[in-house]
Amino acid sequence: MDDHKSEDQHLVAAAQHILKALAASKAVSDDLRKTLLDFDIHLSAMSIVERSIKQLERKIKFAEGKIMTWKAKNSMIWDCGSKESSEYLEAVSEIQAAVHNLQSLNEHDKELLGRANGILQVAMAKLEEELVHILVKHKQYLEPESFANEAGSVDLVNPALIPDLKSIANVMFGSKYHQEFCQTFISSRRDALDEFFVVLEIERFSNENVMKMEGNCLNREIKKWIRAVKIVFQVYLVAEKRLCKQILGDFNDSVYQFCFAEITLSFVLKLLNFGEAVAMGNRSPEKLFCFLDIYEVLENLAVYVDILFFEEFGSFVRDEFHKLLNKFGEASKFTFLAFKNAIANDPSKARFPGGGVHHLTKYVMNFIKTLAEYGEALNLLLADETPADPEGNDDDDSHPLAGEFWSVAATLESNLISKSKLYKDVALQHVFMMNNIHYMVQKAKSSELSLVFGDRWLRRHVAKFRDNARSYERVTWGPILSILKQENAELNCTSSKENLKKKCKDFNASFSETYRSQTGWYIPDTELREDVQISISQKVVHAYRQFTGRYSSTIDEKWKKHTVDDIENYVLDLFVGSPKSLHYFSSSAQILKRDKSV
Amino acid sequence: MSMSMDGSHDTECEEMELFQRHVAERFAELLSCTDEPEAFMSIGWLRKLLDEFLCCEAEFKAVLLMGRDPFQIAKPPLDKLLPELLDRIIKSLDVCNAVSLGIDSLRNIQRLAEIVLSALDQTLIGDGQVRRAKKALSALLSAMLHEDKDGGITKGTERSRSFGRRGNKDKDRSAAAPFRSLSWTMPKNWSAAKQIHAMSSNLAAPRGNESSGLALPVFIMNTVLVFVLWTLVAALPCQERNGLGTHFQMPRNLSWAQPITALQERISEEWKKKEKKGTVGLLEEMQKMEKIAQWLLDFADSFQFPAEADKLEEVKAQVEELADICRKMEEGLEPLQLQIREVFHRVVRTRTEFLHVLDQAAKLNIPAS
């Protein structure tokens, strides 16, 4: 072959010599001379090409040696040190350049070009393997705990290897094998992401499974999921995107963005699917805190998601995330409404024994106490829907949630009033309302709730339960006090003795009756109980002392069943919740009226 | 609610007649679709199918909910039929998710096909290009035939399996990298075939005087739902399609059901044929691609440089077809995925709405306290 080439070269040289000679001859026309000189130039170019091709051939052969040696080996180039890897990359670059040059030369040496392309393909295949190897070997496994501390500065692949990965990328892209690079890179990173699921201890559940999960199990999974979602969006995916940019950032932006999207899209959707299933669950009031928890978390993560997926490639993910966020918002709103309706519709069937604090009151107040912790989230959700406040508690300084909470309290009060009507004894109705409103006020005074309810509401409701206390007194003790009262006109009446006797009897009967029923009534709050007892004492004991004192001369000891001290002590038995009765040894038909309170 | 019995009854009958007719028309149109870009079981056709489904669903909701007293849909036989439908909806969500993941694996196949295009769409085809193409083709065919198990995500072009006819001495066999097939797809024992089976059981046509009431649209909606999902599973890769049922108890005498029955029979035929060979799924683009990929692989296996001119002409033609398929996938896969997601969200919303109405009806039943 070389012989042929050198023969050709001789021929060319000879031809050029002849041409030059002819061109210099005076016998040749200008046109002809021009043609001859052109031809000469052509022949020169041919020589150059020939020389170039020879050069290329040499380079190709040299690089081929390197590349084919590695093909035969089973080991990895990048395990053998940076000298080997950079030499290899150099060899590839040579082949790459050779291909490029051969293609641009007019003289197409098809065989040589084919050979070069063949070698290039071998190199590319090897580089693919190396890529996988580096990505897997130098993957950094990170525990979720460590994520919490290093938000954002996490490296998913050993940073020392980034330059190598970049070199491989550059070479493969330069050889127009970018598709293989991306495909391999994306697959490897997807595997890493799937592994992370295992680290997060997230299991795969179908929608059906999730819908069937019971309370504790579901709560456990939700907790895990919330933790996962935070780590994934705030740390892991940020790091992943950075990795893509580091390796592929030299090319068009769309390249690294595309890779990032391909790596993460499926994973994120799978992650969100669990949330979708939870959002479809039943909407009983107990679920409200769960929905709000998730809503808060997603709301806080929205900004991360928007940044991570702001390009066109990521719009699908972004949309799905926001849809899910909205679903939890709706679920929360709906459940909150269900909660209010449950209060309003709580059935009042049986009288609540003793007139104490109803479980509905406790449930509601404790519920909203916990709810107040979600202030921010609720605020966002309920901002447009604050009901008008009928009681005029509203104030410019009101807490944003005040309206909603006042509304809940008002609904509760309303229902309690219905419940109170079940009691036939009006006095007990008042005691019941007093107890319950007092409880509401006590709860509302506590930390978070006091800020929400505000001073005005508190003052009004303190006034309310005091009103009820006074009404109770009026209904029960009013008549009894009027027994003990004496009209001036009767003072010196001859029948005053009879009168007084009757008064004593009436008093004893009424007091005993009241004692019998109202010892069974219950005021759970000791302070409130004392206040009521003291108030009763002050009036009744005082009146009794006055009555018995003033008419001590007229009143027979037999008529008086109790001393003043007795009365004082008996009052302390009221509202303790253990029914007692006073036993009289009177034989006359004192028909003790049936206990009206139960 | 205060309309006269006769008046409301007539409108109701009319609405239901219309609903039946529309369902029949929509599916008849799908049956007659034979031309590109909506050839039977192509991406375009599936998109049309989903469109029609969403229309049916919307009409169904209107028929059942608009202007209606909640009490009407809470009384028998709907008191049992509606919760069944809502339960089917939950099952269908898992199918939507599985199919959506399947589209991911199709996208992967598309990328591999695009590598083949890069390799072979050249004037000069030498050893290098052919080996490059062969690598991608092997990976592609492997992905197609094993998608249901591995989750379908091929690890680059690294495959230790060769599908060439020339023995198994693949000279470009690369050391199989230790990829785990740990792709988190559906739960481990979940099966699309089983899910569809569960959804189609207990699906009985209303009989007697029930067949003229609201039970009928509910039955129609159930049927449509099951049919559409079954079709998606037959067409697109998804976890565990083995044993996909091909026989449905379709009512023979109902006019609205005839186009659906015809479609179902046609798809069943195709499915049975393919099941014998191996489950590539019925998606038209995949069917075509499989043939082309196999042809090209055979070409690659028997390639010697330089190839004959007429052989190269054939290669060119195959490559052009492949490019066409890739184009269709590029344009259609994402919208298809979006549509499936739309179906997901819509049926969830429908379920919520029905639950809400049933809840209202239940409250109305409680005697005032």
Keywords:
heterodimer; A: 598 residues; mainly alpha; disordered C terminus; B: 369 residues; 10 helices
Describe the structure.
The complex is a heterodimer of chains A (598) and B (369). Chain A has 20 helices and no strands. With 598 residues, chain A is mostly helical. The longest helix of chain A is centred in the first third of the chain and has 43 residues, at 30-72. Chain B is mostly helical and 369 residues long. Chain B has one domain (9-19, 38-146, 184-360). Chain B has ten helices and no strands. In chain B, helix 4 packs parallel to helix 7, helix 5 (127-150) crosses helix 9 and helix 7 runs parallel beside helix 8 (258-277). The longest helix of chain B is centred in the C-terminal third of the chain and has 57 residues, at 309-365. Chain B: Keywords: Membrane, Transmembrane, Transmembrane helix. Chain B: Belongs to the ROH1 family. Chain B: The chain crosses the membrane at residues 214-236.
